[in-house]
Amino acid sequence: MSLNELSSTDEQPSTSGNQLTAPVADSPDATTTATAFDWDVFADRGKALRYFRQTREAIDVMIVTNDDGEECVHLPIVSTLGPQFTKTLVTAMSDSNAETVQLDNGSEVKKIVVKDMDKQVLKSIIDMTYESTLCVSDDTVWPLIRAAIDYEMTDVLDASLLFLATRLDIDNCVQYFHLGIQHNHRLSNASFNFIKANFCDVIYKCMDFPELSADELTVLIASDDLNVKSEQTVYEAIIHWIQWSANERSGHLYPLLKNLRYARLDIEFIENTVAKNGLIVEDQDSQQLVNKFVDTFRTFTKKKDGYGLYVGLHPDPIRPRVPHEIAIVFGGWQEGVPSTMLEVYDIRTNRWFDTKISHNSPRAYHGMQIINGLVYVIGGTDGINILKSVQCFDTITKRWYDRQDMNEKRCYVSTVVVDGNIYAMGGHNGQHRIKSCEKYDPQTKVWTKIQDMNMSRSDGSATVYMGKIYIAGGLNDQMIESSVEFYDLTAKTWSLIMPMITPRTSLGFVALDDALYAIGGNNGFERLQSVEKYDIKLKSWQMVANMLSKRSTFATAVIENSIYVIGGYNGQTPICSVEKYDSLSQIWTPARSLNHDRSGLAVCVASGLSTAVDFTFIGRNELKLRKQLDSKDIDNGDADDKCANSDNIGTDGQTDEDNITFGSV
Q1: Does residue 597 surpass a pLDDT of 60?
Q2: Peptide bond before 315: cis, by omega within 30 degrees of 0?
Q3: Fewer CB within 10 Å, N side or C side of the chain?
Q4: 300 near 273, Cβ under 8 Å?
Q5: Which of 38-52, 384-398, 471-485 has the lowest mean pLDDT?
């Protein structure tokens, strides 16, 4: 059998002459006959190709590079790299002046020099033809791309560009966006989404931002899911882009400004900054547009969001953006019993929304984490039983699913996610407080035990910094802990660090800006509003600004680089208040309260959800509009007018609650 035939069939080759033919495997008369031929190798196409390559049997050509690279190959195999590369080899082999070399097995082949390729690239692409896998690294990706373009190797180019998608950052995202467009590759979509998600940093830190075309910038700033904390960022992006080449770009100012959602800005900013900008003053169309902004600022709607900004679905100037990060809160004690309520926070409108998504298992004092759009609810109590069960909520289907139980019951459990795995630590198992820990792998759907902590901890709190798990405070069977320890995933060991200044249980514990923050909780005598910060580099604790109110058994999250504390217990009753901490100003400020008082709740932050809009002002109100259309409450001709008023938000920013749901069960 020839190498050509072997590359297109899975049948075992037969032999003749002095070698015996292999018996048919399924034949009842099959016998095992000793032979020098290795049938196991040739039963698998990949093994066979590797065999031929290693033994240099039936080699067609030797390819060499100027830096002493050498690969002996079979032409039918490397022809999978594409017709251009194959043509190059065939043309060179047919040249009468081509050098002929003798291999160590005695066969003679043509030696072809590939001048514009180094040995590392040559080896990578030849390996791919035999192994069906291209090895790409930071060192080889650009030489591979150049070779793929020169020789029209589409598979090599596709794999190399996919590798670049894993290396996206602020500096290269615009370059990679244009590279993806140039080659009609999905790298462009990945880069575009990265730019939208990191728009503020891209504007000010990416040298290539001005290289975006006017059309590309228009699509970006017109997107609902452009991740900007304030519409002021969009205005600054427009001005920055124009100023890069004002003479050539001034004609784009007016059409770009039309995409500014100006009703989402303070009127003072429009009047004192936008209207007085030199570029706008010198452009008549832009000046008239801004004047119209001011004149019509209060005419669209009387409705405002949680920030006091005008809000609605239509027209675009009052339409809020979709945040990149969504806080999802579930469970907790509410009106004396564990809750099944799931609330979501839209930071662009400073609003909490009840999802009304039903769940048949109430929870309190549970863990909560999100992986790939699946929200995991872990352990806790239903008010009667201590639980080891795990359930997850799919943010796409809006359905709940059961997952594998933990090995041990855990109420007051601490949970984190590292490298796509969930870690559950400590808690109370119904008999005593525990120090055992376990890990859940979503791929295998199995919980496995890991090393115990140094201390038993119930109602402690955990966070992740630089791939290590830190856990603080909590109750052991004797006292409230001030101790803190971390788990090294590589060494599989727990190690104690300097203890907190104040013993704390029912606390919040988060990592932000190279520091760990221990927040509130209970010291055994009272609920706390104090906060302390551990400087990881200095290895020391210091007190920082107190919260605005005392609280324990609350939820804590980092959203857009601010620490949020949500709900909890103030020593007398569950509370719904929310506040946030800015680490730069070191100030706590109120945020919008939950819709319901509750303690013992849990929160996770969903970042970059494909269905993020469903959990925001836009998604909620567009769904309500669809329901109205379906019930024929309004006709199509009035749809746009009704949209602007369908949110039921009063002038104080409060939304009337209704039975709108985000999805069916």
Answers
A1: yes
A2: yes
A3: C
A4: no
A5: 38-52
* pLDDT at position 9 over 70: no
Q: Is residue 273 part of a domain?
A: yes
Range of the domain at 209: 173-318
Query: Which strand ranges, in their side-by-side order, compose the sheet holding 587-591?
Result: 555-559, 562-569, 574-582, 587-591
Looking at 226-230, 336-340, 638-642, which range is the least confident one?
638-642
C-beta neighbour count of 124 within 10 angstroms? 24
- Cα-Cα-Cα-Cα dihedral sign, residues 103, 108, 114, 117: negative
CATH of residue 256's domain is 1.25.40.420
Neighbours of 402 (CB within 10 A): 10
In one letter, which amino acid is 384?
Answer: I
Query: Helix or strand or coil: residue 542?
Result: strand
Which token pair is 220?
């970006």
Rounded distance between C-alpha atoms, residue 171 and residue 122, angstroms: 29
pLDDT of residue 574: 97
Q: Is the pLDDT of residue 661 over 90?
A: no
pLDDT of 551 over the 90 cut? yes
Strand-by-strand arrangement of the 70-73 sheet: 70-73, 61-65, 108-114, 99-102
Closest by CA to 578, choosing from 590, 595, 562, 596, is 590
Q: Span 559-582, mean pLDDT?
A: 97
- Report the number of secondary-structure helices (H) and strands (E) in the chain: 20, 30
The tally of domains found in the chain comes to 1
User: Would you state the structure tokens that stand for residue 27, as one six-digit string?
Assistant: 């034949």
The set of residues, in sequence order, having a beta carbon less than 8 Å from that of 400 and lying 6+ positions away, is: 357, 359, 360, 391, 392, 393, 394, 665
Q: pLDDT above 70 covers what percent of the chain?
A: 88
DSSP state of 290: H
Determine the pLDDT at residue 42. 52
Q: Mention every residue, 6+ apart, whose C-beta is less than 8 A from residue 664.
A: 398
In a domain, 180, yes or no: yes
Tokens 């495997």 belong to which residue? Answer: 25
Question: Both tokens of residue 579?
Answer: 């506040």
How far is the C-alpha of 418 from the C-alpha of 425, rounded, in Å? 13
How large is the average pLDDT for residues 142-167?
96
Range in 283-292, 384-393, 641-650 the model is least confident about: 641-650
Crossing angle of the two packed helices 214-221 and 187-197, in degrees rounded to 10: 60
Q: DSSP of 237-272, one letter per residue?
A: HHHHHHHTTHHHHGGGHHHHHTT--GGGS-HHHIII
What is each CA distance from 402 to 312, 339, 383, in whole angstroms? 37, 18, 19
Residues in CB range of 83: below 8 A, 6 or more apart? 152
Which DSSP symbol is given to 306? T
Q: Hunting for tokens 């060499």 — which residue is that?
A: 64
Q: Is the pLDDT of residue 307 over 80?
A: yes
- Give, in order, the Cα–Cα distances in Å from 415 to each of 308, 441, 469, 596: 36, 13, 10, 24
Name, in order, each residue with C-beta under 8 angstroms of 40's C-beta and a sequence gap of 6 or more. Answer: 47
Region for residue 421 given its phi and psi (left: phi exceeds 0; alpha: psi -120 to 50; beta: otherwise): beta
Ramachandran angles phi, psi of 568, nearest 5°: 115, -160
One-letter amino acid for residue 160 of the chain: S
Is residue 458 within 8 A of residue 474, CB to CB? The reply is yes
Position 256 in a domain: yes
Residue 195 lies in a domain: yes
At 565, list the tokens. 């504390």
